[in-house]
Write a structure and sequence with these properties.
The protein is mainly α. It has helices spanning 7-46, 51-65, 69-84, 90-115, 119-127, 132-162, 174-185, 188-217.
């Protein structure tokens, strides 16, 4: 007996999946904004002259990069509440997990970008009378930011796809919504195909947006 593919199942699933898609985008944006701040601070601490700061940044980066994000999600949602004696909302746990995970990778991107800038440019900035902050703001940051954009783009796409792992704590993002629809109509092929296409639309859109910024900032110069 041949497989009976039904386009109607895909169309009927779209409204519910769009709700999950919006939640996926919200979690990704919130997680990445926090993750970028966390990563920028940690990346600068990693190249600090103070040994203690470098050690603390290194422990955070290696701890996160050395453990699966699935374990981090489970630890934040199930482990931390036991230690803190308080309940954590699945949505909050999901955003924190994405932020903490992406922050470690962004820290290495920031560190690499800053260390790629010729130290002579810092000396040149100071020699013309700029303060340390002015040198960083006007000379180092703009160049480092250009070099961060391609690897940051990759990290953003990875973090967006990682939101699918939040299904284990019951966050109603795109993957979880797909599961709920299948539980009602048992049409796994059509629903998962629709879910996959929606992820593809999001990642391709993000990729095009980042390409636009790369051209706008002319990072190849």
């Amino acid at each position: 007996m041949g497989f009976d593919f039904k386009y109607s199942v895909m169309w009927e699933s779209v409204p519910m999946l769009l709700v999950g898609m919006k939640l996926t985008i919200l979690i990704t944006i919130c997680g990445l904004v926090i993750g970028f701040v966390l990563g920028a601070v940690t990346g600068l601490l990693k190249i600090s002259r103070k040994l203690l700061f470098r050690k603390l940044a290194g422990i955070y980066i290696e701890s996160i990069r050395g453990t699966p994000i699935m374990v981090q999600v489970m630890f934040i949602y199930f482990g931390l509440p036991m230690a803190l004696g308080m309940r954590i909302h699945p949505m909050v746990a999901g955003i924190v997990a994405i932020a903490v995970n992406s922050g470690a990778y962004i820290a290495e991107i920031v560190r690499g970008a800053f260390q790629s800038i010729d130290p002579g440019q810092t000396e040149a900035g100071r020699s013309i009378g700029l303060t340390h902050f002015q040198t960083m703001y006007y000379i180092i940051w703009p160049q480092a930011l250009k070099r961060m954009i391609p690897p940051l783009g990759n990290q953003f796409i990875i973090s967006l796809k990682d939101t699918s792992l939040l299904v284990v704590v019951g966050v109603g993002e795109l993957t979880r919504t797909g599961q709920e629809i299948i539980a009602g109509n048992f049409r796994a092929f059509e629903v998962w195909l629709t879910v996959a296409l929606m992820y593809l639309v999001m990642t391709l859109s993000l990729s095009r947006l980042l390409n636009y910024f790369e051209k706008k900032m002319d990072i190849n110069k």
